[in-house]
């Protein structure tokens, strides 16, 4: 190796070391990913605080940025369809997930105002379980004035997008599985396309009857409105 080559090699090595040092420093400074119980507790506290502080805030933007990404609507749809999910094409699955998402969030839209002022408490997961498991259940309790506390449990899975909710259980009852029987009956009678049409028709009816304000608030209620729906 001549002097010039050695100098270039030294410069390249120095640059690489600087890059790796900066990368390591950035990794050390980056916040550790939240555990699923801490994630849901933090998200709930943030959303409730914003809703209470500004009751006329732009909820659509808040929903899209903070709440919707935490839910795995495709997996929720697959659970609701059961074995019929395997019968659907890729395009049909995408449309089913989109329609089911709309149905779920609008179903709970009218409960937002009531649960905005409720106290929601989360039970911490055992540290060992949170660190070792890729799927956990996060337990919470809604405390309301003049009513018994209501349990809401979130089944969550860790994946490429982080921890996401794939089912919600209200007082022990799955909010996703409640649709399985009706979905299966529709698929038997009209096929997958028939189910997509039925969901789309139902969503159009809900949109026409809900009004603009309720439609804008709807997705927030995947977290805050489900208990009211389960009690009816």
Write the layout of secondary structure elements.
Elements: H1 3-29, H2 36-53, H3 59-67, H4 73-81, H5 90-107, H6 112-116, E1 119-122, H7 127-132, E2 135-143, E3 150-159, E4 162-170, E5 173-174, H8 180-217, H9 221-224, H10 226-231
Antiparallel strand pairs: 1-2, 2-3, 3-4, 4-5
Commentary on this structure:
It is built from 10 helices and 5 strands, in the order H-H-H-H-H-H-E-H-E-E-E-E-H-H-H. The protein has 232 residues and is an alpha+beta fold. The protein has 2 domains: 30 residues; 196 residues, Nuclear Transport Factor 2, Chain: A, CATH 3.10.450.710. It has a 5-stranded antiparallel sheet with strand order 1-2-3-4-5. Helix 4 crosses helix 5 and helix 5 packs across helix 8. The chain is globular. The termini are far apart.
Care to give the gist of this entry?
It contains ten helices and five strands, in the order H-H-H-H-H-H-E-H-E-E-E-E-H-H-H. It has 232 residues and is an alpha+beta fold.
